[in-house]
Design goal:
The protein is built from 8 helices and 20 strands. It is an alpha+beta fold and 484 residues long. The chain folds into 2 domains: 134 residues, no CATH class; 248 residues. A hairpin with a 6-residue loop joins strand 13 and strand 14.
Length: 484
């Protein structure tokens, strides 16, 4: 069924323009005095003398792969434009230089020609097909066609599409793999807690676990900037000290033999920093309520920009019970976004109620802090006693050595006293790091206190005599930068 032809309304201006075009075409050549619709049939078999040299290729196939040029409604010198099949030898050359194709845009000619006469050529989705149905199209080929160029372009395009498809499939496979790995880890840390009656996250969960190893230890050491000469380039960061982790209640009573881990994750890299790591063969007996676990970390200062996360995973070892029951498991967070800027040091606590116990964590948040890493050495005599460390202004003290558990120290050995914890953070200039030493060796009871004022970098050391021993205390100061 033929499509109705679109006949634009005739106007006086359009008729005058068509007359001018017809006159220009008649003056350019005297070979085609007939009307346009008659010349169309004659010009489909243009003499060879009027054709440009073109490759001897199938014309319809060539036209189907040709790319139409830009709109060519008029030539450069403003002369009327005629389709290639209507042009004579006199106007062929300027059109050839503009790479005229057989298919043209009908909108370019509606204002110049009687579209009723050009209907078979101008209108329709495939001009070549219409010409094939009504006229002889043998010999019609696009200008400047080179088969080798088109073949190379086709091969290049097919290769590009193949690469794009392959890359898309690889990306989809990678995304599927990452989503699966992330879901597996996330499901493993989402567990049902019988004490609260619903599922809870028992470990840190705010990362993409397809690229984040939840069990990786933090590789960042203490004293990163102790020897730095560029201390003014780093600002002071807030931090937190974990003062104690205590068992405040037990659904199975006391005593209990506890083992497991307590892990901290700070704002630097959110990787594991162990505060407690005991195996089943190295249980700690908890004999009384509110008794504290013996912590042996952190190994560096904890930076508090947004959150510090504490993962608690404790089990109890019981005779005749296998496997060991879960004693406490869950996640505690310290929110650094709500710290009061009025007090440079605040002591707070949080309690985790889970499985068979309640565990309390006491911590001290510190504003504008520096890191202090300390070591204590026995220079002379013998030592048997306890050593605690704290921050001036707060009562809580941290036991960093107990000879009953850690052993007697003599100067005959290296003299280095084994410390459970070696790092604390405190406010710069407004607080002091205070050590308290008790020595009962040799039957002489001695007590001594030594303190240090923090600085951005560098080291301080002091010596003191206590009981039957002489001690040297050294503290290395360092800034803490969370932009790793």
């Amino acid at each position: 069924m033929n499509r109705p032809r679109k006949i634009p309304p005739r106007t006086k201006q359009r008729d005058e323009r068509a007359d001018r075009v017809s006159s220009a075409a008649s003056s350019a050549t005297s070979s085609y005095p007939a009307p346009i619709h008659q010349r169309l049939h004659e010009l489909v078999t243009v003499p060879d003398r009027c054709r440009p040299p073109v490759p001897d290729l199938p014309p319809v196939q060539a036209c189907s792969r040709a790319v139409p040029p830009r709109s060519l409604s008029r030539t450069t010198d403003r002369r009327p434009f005629l389709p290639s099949v209507l042009s004579s030898a006199a106007i062929w050359e300027p059109l050839r230089r503009r790479f005229i194709m057989v298919s043209v845009n009908p909108l370019d000619f509606e204002d110049m020609f009687d579209v009723e006469d050009l209907e078979p050529f101008v209108y329709g989705k495939s001009a070549v097909k219409k010409l094939d149905d009504e006229f002889e199209v043998e010999g019609l080929v696009p200008f400047c066609y080179d088969e080798a160029t088109w073949v190379a372009w086709t091969e290049e395009e097919m290769e590009r599409q193949r690469r794009n498809k392959e890359e898309k499939e690889q990306k989809e496979a990678e995304n599927e793999r990452r989503a699966k790995e992330h879901k597996e880890v996330r499901d493993s840390i989402l567990e049902y807690d019988p004490k609260v009656g619903h599922k809870v996250f028992t470990r840190f969960f705010l990362r993409d676990f397809s690229i984040f190893d939840i069990n990786e230890k933090s590789p960042i050491p203490a004293m990163r900037y102790t020897d730095s000469r560029h201390e003014d380039e780093f600002r002071l960061e807030d931090s937190a000290n974990i003062l104690s982790v205590s068992i405040v209640s037990s659904d199975v009573g006391f005593p209990v033999n506890v083992y497991g881990s307590v892990i901290a994750r700070d704002s630097i890299d959110y990787k594991c920093i162990y505060l407690l790591h005991r195996h089943r063969d190295d249980c700690q007996p908890i004999k009384l309520q509110d008794e504290m676990l013996v912590l042996n970390g952190p190994g560096r200062g904890l930076v508090l920009v947004d959150f510090i996360y504490l993962e608690i995973d404790l089990k109890i070892k019981e005779d005749g019970v296998h496997p060991d029951r879960q004693f406490s498991k869950g996640l505690i967070s310290i929110d650094g976004r709500v710290l009061s800027r009025e007090n440079d040091l605040v002591v707070a606590s949080d309690t985790l109620d889970s499985w068979l116990s309640s565990v309390e964590v006491r911590f001290a948040t510190v504003l504008n802090s520096v890191e202090g890493t300390f070591q204590i050495q026995l220079l002379e005599g013998h030592y048997y006693g306890t050593i605690t460390v704290g921050i001036s202004g707060i009562e809580h003290r941290i036991v960093i050595h107990d000879s009953e558990a850690d052993g007697v120290v003599t100067c005959d050995d290296s003299g280095a006293i084994t410390l459970r914890r070696r790092v604390m953070t405190l406010c710069l200039l407004s607080r002091k790091l205070v050590f308290h030493i008790d020595n009962k060796a040799g039957g002489v009871l001695g007590e001594q206190t030594i303190d240090f004022t923090p600085s951005r970098t560098g080291a301080d050391q002091g010596e003191t005599c206590c009981g039957d021993g002489k001690f040297q205390v050294r503290v290395d100061w360092s800034l803490m930068d969370y932009m790793q």
